[in-house]
Amino acid sequence: GAPFDVEHIRKDFPALHQSVNGHRLVWLDNAATTHKPQSVIDATSEFYARHNSNIHRAAHTLAARSTDLFEGGREKTRRFLNAPSKDDIVFLRGTTEAINLVANSYGRANIGPGDEIIVSTIEHHANIVPWQLLAQQTGATIRVIPVDDRGDIIFEQYATLLSGRTKIVSVTHVANALGTVNPIQEIIALAHAYGVPVLVDAAQSTPHIPIDVQALDADFLVFSGHKVFGPTGIGALYGKKHLLEAMPPWQGGGHMIEDVTFAKTVYKGAPEKFEAGTPDIAGAVGLGAALDYLESVGLPAISAYEHDLLEYAEGGLAEIKGLRLIGTARHKASVMSFTIDGLKNETVAHHLDAHGIAVRSGHHCALPALRRFGVDQSVRASLAFYNTREDVDVFLAVLRTLPRH
Ligand code: PMP
């Protein structure tokens, strides 16, 4: 194919072209959130400037336009995930709200005392806490797939956790604190051998890896707009039709009903049943623009480019004195989590920031993952397809100048 033209791509991202603390901004905090191409900013502002109506198609002209634009975002999301129908796509605030929806709706209807929920050690808190809340309310138990010293899940241990008591497996595709790419297809296939549905947390994989929910045979898959170069406040749940149809609503309100009397409410079908209240209409439009952008660059090309960049960056990190890379899984995407002997993570992050380089220091909302490696914080640098070798070189050079005692 054509060479990956990163300089051309960077021109589309206005936020990348600024100086921070007197230096060119180097954005290596992509696992937390991503910058937006101009097309996303334009689609969002044009929505407010020209269309802006609540979604009730029949009422008037702007309402029809806004409804079509909102539903257009849903169709783009369907295509991005290769879902069979756009009715299988529920718009929510993001990954967190999507997992909470499944835990509260599917979970309460299907999970009871003595039942088991399987997650892994390397989940984001968003894929731990909703299940814990559910377990406390229902008397179910959480079982945890362990990881080895590299941060790969121990598949044989996963196999031993599955049983007739298992009611759902909810695992991440890419781990946000370590970068591990889980063997999600195998995880799903084995769960299905036990008749158990799987929720895939694709918050960290959607920016890096092509997703096909039908090829994966995922039962539920969730992601956030802001991590795929779209707006904050919007994300999606994909669910298999028969599962969504059987699930009760979670939140109640406008937009999700056919009829309401004080005796009884009749709900709409999926996805409206799960979209109570006025949704983030401009967010859905912006998300659609972001997915169009990703498609125009091409996720297979993005994956290949980022794979090289990550190898290059990790090669450089290996030469930094006292640096310990946390998470060296066989397959990784985007994330480099590390500590440096004798230095606080905060100090490292501030030193980088003083040179215009944005990384995150802290627990990355994945405390059990970090504690598995004997720490409860790290510095995390995370790549996107608009990062360059030059970004990595600057990052490594600044790490080499860290004041040591
Ligand atoms: N899961 C993973 C793997 C994540 O990386 C994140 C975001 N850091 C979330 C869930 C939560 O996403 P959000 O905050 O957008 O709801």
Topology:
Elements: H1 6-10, E1 19-20, E2 23-24, E3 26-27, H2 38-51, H3 61-81, E4 89-92, H4 95-110, E5 116-120, H5 129-138, E6 141-145, H6 155-161, E7 166-172, H7 184-193, E8 198-201, H8 213-216, E9 220-224, E10 235-239, H9 241-246, E11 257-260, E12 265-267, H10 281-297, H11 299-317, E13 323-326, E14 335-340, H12 345-354, E15 357-358, E16 360-362, H13 367-371, E17 378-382, H14 389-400
Parallel strand pairs: 3-15, 5-6, 5-7, 7-8, 8-9
Antiparallel strand pairs: 1-2, 4-10, 9-10, 11-12, 13-14, 14-17, 16-17
Helix pairs in contact: 2-10, 3-10, 4-5, 11-14
The structure holds 4'-deoxy-4'-aminopyridoxal-5'-phosphate (PMP).
4'-deoxy-4'-aminopyridoxal-5'-phosphate (PMP) binds next to α4.
Enzyme class: transferase
EC number: 2.8.1.7
Catalytic activity: (sulfur carrier)-H + L-cysteine = (sulfur carrier)-SH + L-alanine
